[in-house]
Amino acid sequence: MPKSLLILQPEGKRLKVGVGKTILDIAQEAGVDIQSVCAGKGICGKCRVVVRAGSEYLSQASRVERVVFSDDELEKGYRLACRAIIGKSGTITVEVPPESRAGLQRLLVSGVETRVEFEPAVRKYMVEVRRPTLEEPRSDMDRLLDALSRRREIRIERICLGALRRAPHAVRSAEPNVTITVWNNKEVISVEAGNKQTKLYGFAVDVGTTKLAGYLVDLDLGTIVAAVSSTNPQIPYGEDVISRMSFIMKDLKGLSQLQTLIIKEVDKLILEACKHAHVTPDQVHEVTVVGNSAMHHIFFGIYPGYVALAPYPTVLRDPIDVKASELGVDINPCGNIHGLPLIAGFVGADAVADILATQMYALDDIAMMIDIGTNTEIVIGDKNKLTACSCASGPAFEGAHIKNGMRAATGAIERVYIDPDTFQVGYETVDNAKPSGVCGSGVVDAVAEMLMRRIIDSSGRIKTELGLPNIRVKDRIPELVLAGASETGSGNEIVITQEDIRQIQLAKAAIYSGISILMRRLGISAGDISKIFLAGAFGTYVDPQSARVIGMYPDIPLSRVQFVGNAAGSGARMALMSIEMRRKADEISKKVDYIELGADPNFQNDFLNATYLPHKNIDLFPSVRRLLQN
Amino acid sequence: MPKSLLILQPEGKRLKVGVGKTILDIAQEAGVDIQSVCAGKGICGKCRVVVRAGSEYLSQASRVERVVFSDDELEKGYRLACRAIIGKSGTITVEVPPESRAGLQRLLVSGVETRVEFEPAVRKYMVEVRRPTLEEPRSDMDRLLDALSRRREIRIERICLGALRRAPHAVRSAEPNVTITVWNNKEVISVEAGNKQTKLYGFAVDVGTTKLAGYLVDLDLGTIVAAVSSTNPQIPYGEDVISRMSFIMKDLKGLSQLQTLIIKEVDKLILEACKHAHVTPDQVHEVTVVGNSAMHHIFFGIYPGYVALAPYPTVLRDPIDVKASELGVDINPCGNIHGLPLIAGFVGADAVADILATQMYALDDIAMMIDIGTNTEIVIGDKNKLTACSCASGPAFEGAHIKNGMRAATGAIERVYIDPDTFQVGYETVDNAKPSGVCGSGVVDAVAEMLMRRIIDSSGRIKTELGLPNIRVKDRIPELVLAGASETGSGNEIVITQEDIRQIQLAKAAIYSGISILMRRLGISAGDISKIFLAGAFGTYVDPQSARVIGMYPDIPLSRVQFVGNAAGSGARMALMSIEMRRKADEISKKVDYIELGADPNFQNDFLNATYLPHKNIDLFPSVRRLLQN
């Protein structure tokens, strides 16, 4: 029987396959990860692949594919893996894009990897130090710096007291070898006996309102040696930044209380990462920190109260460098804590880091970055101009204020589809555990599916009059049952209520109206956007098609949507590894135009129009209109 | 009866006086302070004055004056006030030089006042800060620094975290006025509401092994507003630097123990000075610190152990700037603690400050600076070259290791003379209290007087065989009784023993041999020295004639000897008031040649020769030879 050769990229897996099988079948047999929520029924549209070569050996695009994909995408070779059948013998090359990966998406939380020139702010130099003599009884530091100046063009302006205090012992313990650590080519921050050049580490941390993510980086080699994360311990003082700021505004000691909590948590993360990599925290010489403006201010002990009040000014926009000992961060006491710069009260260092990580500041074409969280930052622009705004999208996408909402933890329903014929609900859960709730991406899927199946109308109203099997009214509120009591871990049903749908509508309207205002100010339309970067944990898990169906972002081909995961963390790492990136961050923070949405006269109108699914003006979403028409 | 007009300078007192009275009588009647230990008997030679005009209206120089003064001095108008009698009517102008003042000398402890261009490192600027708007919601610091940049050519590189933390409140409390304190034109160290320009203070402190002296300076006006002093609380851990260093070398916690003691003491001094001047310590924005290398290192918490070991290298020679909060000094937490630079292990920041204060770095002619203490620093040179050494002169000049020795406190015999005819001993005490001991200047006076009266020979031996009334042998040791039991406060006699004389011989020999070696290296002799600056408390109280008689320093006219008091403290103040002086100090610390006496082949020989009174080679001391011949 004649065989075809199927090459799956980017893995480069080469498979000899018979005619008649679908790409999805073959990939799954070979252990290549492709999402498929509907189990190959051609319904969920999630098993998107791109045929790079040999499309003539595959079956023609099916009707469902012609609906799911735009002409542009079809032309580029987009197929649903469950509908593309090997038709003839030949060599076929297929790429599985990141958005079609189930597992990979989770990995992406560690953020996009952008190559930067490796040029950390801290460097170690091994020098040989001459002994003092009676004729020339020079000071320890004079002899050290002399040795250093012979080796490099370094201009020392300061010596950290902690390093100075170690110097007399260091110069005498392993004569004549001494290792000097220099920060920013101008400050001595450590003096050690012997050759310690390879013991140089840094830590990059993204302090999110909800979650902290940290990366221990070997600053000698430029490699990540450990990644750690934890929950923000400030959560008991308020789930969102506004409530934490209120707490601080009400209580004189609130600021130092919340600061202490977060510093201790970062210390824990550093210790955990160090243990993992068999490194002592004393070998960590720098920490880069990103976070929204409130988290940033609290971390550095700066009063964030005025950030919460119009016109929402930050105390500081510039990057900030503080000695570890001054902040009480448990690394080398002379180590530096570098806070990346901010843009505005609600577009913080995390957004700067997002921009760094996506490198949209260098793109020729217009790109859009959406970092979805309780507060969603949006940046649009190219190498010439970047404009940002912030939307109060609320915590619905993180599962809060959703009846059975939860974070994307084990047991959370993260994928939902509804059979167009039977209206039966199918779902996937995190870690394939028994469902215990529904996370943001699950709710978005559910709303999108309900819209596609015409269970809800464009106003979001559940059509109870249809009498569908999973739709009911409980306590006067219509709802869709996702999982019955028998299926769940707790024995309680998991539902999506009319109110949940409203929450999602408000949240996505907040984002889309922000995008609308930015685009109008810039005079651009969806067609001008060459790329959308989706950042943040939710932005990583959400199905881009579902997000587009509900109208969260402009209707552009999904191939232009790129998941960048925890881009803020990536940006923090880039700043840790490259002083050029810090200069770039500073430039970005000064250059980005900030637009205060509340001050825009169209804001209310834009917001109201955007509460419709996908939008009051369906013409803005041609691909959704096409889907709804089919 | 015809009257003369006597003008006493520098007071400018104009006195109508009759013929026949001595200048001393007239001055004492008029309350002008002139020393006179022998009460006008023409013996002690301490009432030296300089006749500036009208010498023709005075009696001719007496025989005793022709002995006391060199030809050079006589030509310049030097007289003993007790021997200069108004002979005719006329206008006579007489200057009372500092060394003839009893009271003034004590005042001189505050140090020489050298005018410096007032240019402190900390400056305050009052700016008007614009409110943020929705259209331009700029950060507090952006608005502050903008306002600052409009006013001056300041380039801010850093913002102290403490200042940053105060900023949000400061910009909103007294809108639009904010006062920004800038350090070194590059760091914001304070942000205050309203106009606080006049609230700017600094503190200069000389950390001596025995004594601390501090000066609170108004850095807005450039005036000293309080002077304070106290005893070094480290004394229980060793009277001299060597024993304190030994303590630290033996005990791991010794360094931090001694550091804490000294920092707390400085805090106390600052608080005391602030209370006196009605200033809060928070308004103190900078502290300059001088001290010998050991005191300097301990103050900054730097291990001084190796300073005690050959070749005696310091850890640091450069000036050092540390945040007050980092050292725990209780001033404004963002305030700077500036340690002046050092020269060598035993020529510290105090010597640099001495050089600054005397301005010998700028002199055309060769000058010598002697800062007498347990350790005596000697610097010789001019604007082209400065050379320094350090002598272990020991604590004898401070009254230690002297049988009835004490510090120059109330009741200390500080002036001694011996009647050449009766050999009766006369003395003066500090505060004219009943004598309770003898301080360094008293012992030096006693030894000089004994030499002049030929009670001791040039080897220092007391000639008991003369059978003089106040000379006796007790417990086999010859001694001179200064004060009988009936005269003293305690009822105990006060004596100068043979051993005391030996101590003084060793101490002065240490100094003179150091001077000899420096002069030989530089190829100069006594005649080349245009000026000797005597610094330090002892250097202020000692009678320059007595010091010259015993051979402590080269035989040059006393008119060339200048008391500069606590010059180290003066230098610290100058560095506080002028960044130009800091640059100069840095230059000095790099430029001064340090000579290690122990490495000089002539050291032992020079030392032995110098133990003689005034010297084994009497030709080196022509003025003393002349006195002895008379």
What CATH first level of one domain in chain A would be assigned?
Answer: Alpha Beta
Spatial extent as radius of gyration of chain A: 27 Å
CATH topology of one domain in chain A: Nucleotidyltransferase, domain 5
Euclidean distance between termini CA atoms of chain A = 39 Å
Strand content of chain A: 15-25%
Of all protein chain pairs, which has the greatest interface, and how many residues does each chain bring to it?
A: A-B, 49 and 49 residues
Structural class of chain A: alpha/beta
Low-confidence stretches of chain A: 103-110
Work out the oligomeric state of the chains in this entry. homodimer
Task: Please give the count of helices of chain A.
Answer: 19
The percent range for helix content of chain A is 25-40%
Tell me the number of strands of chain A.
Answer: 27
Per the principal axes of the C-alpha atoms, what is the gross shape of chain A? globular
Structure description:
The structure is a homodimer of 630-residue chains. With 630 residues, the first copy, chain A, is of the alpha/beta class. Among the domains of chain A are: 3-101, Beta-grasp domain (Ubiquitin-like (UB roll), Roll), CATH 3.10.20; 122-193, Ubiquitin-like (UB roll) (Roll); 351-387 and 511-622, Nucleotidyltransferase, domain 5 (2-Layer Sandwich); 396-504, no CATH class. Chain A has 19 helices and 27 strands. Chain A has a six-stranded mixed β-sheet with strand order 12-11-10-13-15-14, sandwiched between helices. In chain A, strands 26-25-16-17-18-27 form a six-stranded mixed β-sheet, sandwiched between helices. In chain A, strands 2-1-5-3-4 form a five-stranded mixed β-sheet. In chain A, a hairpin with a 4-residue loop joins β17 (376-381) and β18. The longest helix of chain A is centred in the last third of the chain and has 25 residues, at 498-522. The first copy, chain A, is globular and about 100 Å long. The two termini of chain A are 39 Å apart. Residues 103-110 of chain A have low confidence and may be disordered. Chains A and B meet through α5, β7, α6, β14 and α10 of A and α5, β7, α6, β14 and α10 of B.
